[in-house]
Specification:
Residues 12-113 form the DUF4440 domain. This protein has 123 residues and is of the alpha+beta class. It has one domain: Nuclear Transport Factor 2, Chain: A, CATH 3.10.450. Helices cover 28% and strands 46% of the residues. The protein has three helices and six strands; from the N terminus they run H-H-E-E-H-E-E-E-E. It has helices spanning 4-23, 27-31, 50-58; strands at 34-41, 47-48, 65-77, 80-90, 97-108, 111-120. Strands 2-1-6-5-4-3 form a six-stranded mixed sheet, covered by helices on one side. It is globular and about 40 Å long.
C-alpha cells in the first residue's frame, strides 16, 4: 500500500475506532487501539503503554468528543503509516480545543494500532 488513498484508509480505520471510544468515554477501549509499547504524548507528560493511554482518557471530562481531519500521510515502511491531523476536542462546558496530532500506526497480525501519538498546540 503505497498510495495516499491507501494510507488514508488505514488511518481512518484507526482514527474512527479511536474517535468512537473517545466520544463514548471508554478509556480502556481507546487504549486497546494502541500497541503494548506505544509512546503517548497528550497535553500532559508522556507515557508508554496502554495503561498510560487509559489513564489519560479516564481523566478527560464526560461529554468530550473528537472530530479529526487528516492533513498528510506518508508510508514510512512496510506496515508503518504516518498521519498528521487536526483534532477538535469539544466539551460541554468550555470552548472547543483544536490540536495537531501526529500518529504512527503499525500493522500487527490482527490489525493496525497506534504506536506513537503526539499532540501539539500551535498558537
Amino acid at each position: 500500500m503505497n498510495s495516499t488513498a491507501g494510507n488514508e484508509k488505514v488511518l481512518r480505520g484507526v482514527l474512527d475506532a479511536w474517535k468512537a471510544a473517545v466520544d463514548a468515554h471508554q478509556p480502556e477501549r481507546v487504549a486497546a487501539g494502541f500497541t503494548e509499547d506505544a509512546i503517548f504524548q497528550g497535553l500532559h507528560p508522556y507515557s508508554v503503554g496502554r495503561q498510560g493511554v487509559a489513564d489519560y482518557y479516564a481523566s478527560q471530562p464526560l461529554g468530550m468528543t473528537a472530530e479529526y481531519r487528516i492533513l498528510e500521510t506518508r508510508q514510512l515502511g512496510e506496515g508503518l503509516v504516518l498521519g498528521y491531523q487536526t483534532v477538535d476536542f469539544s466539551f460541554t462546558d468550555r470552548p472547543t480545543l483544536t490540536v495537531y496530532l501526529s500518529l504512527v500506526v503499525r500493522q500487527q497480525a490482527d490489525g493496525w494500532y497506534i504506536s506513537h501519538y503526539q499532540v501539539s498546540r500551535l498558537r
